Automatic annotation (TrEMBL):
Protein name in the entry: OsmC family protein
Organism: Candidatus Defluviibacterium haderslevense
InterPro entries: KH_dom-like_a/b (IPR015946), OsmC/Ohr_fam (IPR003718), OsmC/Ohrsf (IPR036102)
UniProt signal peptide: none
Lineage: superkingdom: Bacteria
SUPFAM superfamilies for the chain: OsmC-like (SSF82784)
Length: 131
């Protein structure tokens, strides 16, 4: 799988336009740190990636199994541990629907293998160039 996005910032602190092949969104920083507060900040985008991927993965699995799920809510928070030099994600999933305990347990297993979860849990390598 290959994903490509571009981000561009001009002179308006710190409004950044992010584009993929078919979509566009705004990232920004909060007013309290000099931004305009016009979009998700980068950490919110990272949390949103995990939350949305979890929702989509669970919905796809439930549809394939024909399980009666009305709604899936996922909350993600990110915190940094400066002492351990690590990042901690806290994810809470609420599934609305008549499911057995076994079905809920299976959904938890599936959530833990969604593509973004796997990406964030494995080694990440970033190669950067500048021109």
């Amino acid at each position: 799988m290959h994903t490509h996005v571009t981000a561009s910032i001009q002179t308006e602190n710190y409004k950044t336009i992010i584009k993929s092949e078919f979509n566009e969104l705004i990232s920004d920083e909060a007013v309290s740190v000099g931004g305009g507060g016009t979009g998700f900040n980068p950490h919110e985008l990272l949390a949103a990636s995990l939350a949305s991927c979890t929702c989509i993965t669970l919905r796809m699995y439930a549809e394939r199994k024909q399980w009666p799920i009305e709604k899936i809510d996922v909350q993600v928070s990110i915190s940094k541990d400066k002492v351990l030099a690590s990042t901690h994600f806290e994810r809470s999933i609420t599934v609305h629907g008549h499911l057995s305990d076994e079905q809920r347990d299976r959904l938890l297993e599936i959530a833990n293998v969604c593509p973004i979860h796997k990406t964030l849990s494995n080694g990440i390598y970033i190669n950067t160039s500048i021109s």
